[in-house]
Amino acid sequence: MQPSVVFVLGGPGAGKGTQCQRIVQNYGYVHLSAGDLLREERNNPGSKYGELIENYIREGKIVPVEITCSLLEAAMDASGKEKFLIDGFPRNQNNLDGWQKAMAGKVRLQFVLFFDCPLEVCTERCLSRGAGRSDDNMESLRKRFNTYLNETKPIIEHYEDLSLVRRIDATRGVEKVYEDVRRIFEEPNV
Ligand code: UP5
Ligand code: MG
Question: Is 85 helix (H, G, I), strand (E, B) or coil?
């Protein structure tokens, strides 16, 4: 069977990771956060990409797709599973092109789950997260947001044109947001 994929997109701190954890508990998906995979690779002393990844993350820039896509593919293979939530990817045209080239023939894209959340709410969430991330500071957040607006929004619009986007109002509390998420995953054809 062809593995199936849901792309999970939204601004920095919109709640992608939080909601993915819940989906995993109820719907048997494997959660793969591209950001988490990149941070793991950065922390691996044997990696030749550590410094590059850290620089990109602090600057809120998007790491070249060859690196991200191969981490995603390796994690998919290693899981031995067939349903994936790919969180925080594809974030720009380079990501989309690289994914299409390497993966489009191997997996089925179910839909794109879009957590829509304004800048002020996202900023507040990131600044109060307290996870010690090197990009949770005002300066990096401004850059992350610019990248999101200039590069990721057009990717969401691309999928909107293909009628593949399921938009969720992510400004409310975690439970309320998850009610809407569940409604989507309970649909008969999902
Ligand atoms: N929280 C969550 N939901 C809430 C709610 N409904 N109400 C109130 N609080 C809520 O949540 C963020 C914080 O808000 C948490 O404290 C949470 O408790 C609270 P989280 O679920 O972590 O949000 P998420 O959207 O996952 O935020 P994250 O910061 O992870 O999003 P980013 O997209 O910015 O980060 P990511 O890790 O995906 O990417 C980081 C960087 O990696 C990028 O900027 C880029 O440099 C690089 N990257 C690439 O280069 N390529 C990729 O493909 C992916 C990443
Ligand atoms: Mg996240």
Answer: strand
ipTM higher than threshold 0.90 = yes
* Residue 34 burial class via C-beta count within 10 angstroms: exposed 0-12, middle 13-18, buried 19 and up: buried
Give 102: exposed, middle or buried? Use CB within 10 Å, 0-12, 13-18, 19+: middle
CB 162: neighbour CB atoms within 10 A? 10
pTM score, two decimals? Answer: 0.98
Q: Is 169 domain-assigned?
A: yes
Question: For the domain that residue 166 is a member of, what is the CATH number?
Answer: 3.40.50.300
Does 104 fall in a domain?
Answer: yes
Annotated binding site: 13-18, 39, 61-63, 88-91, 95, 129, 133, 144, 172
Structural domain for 82, as ranges: 4-185
Which H/E stretch holds residue 93?
Answer: helix 93-103
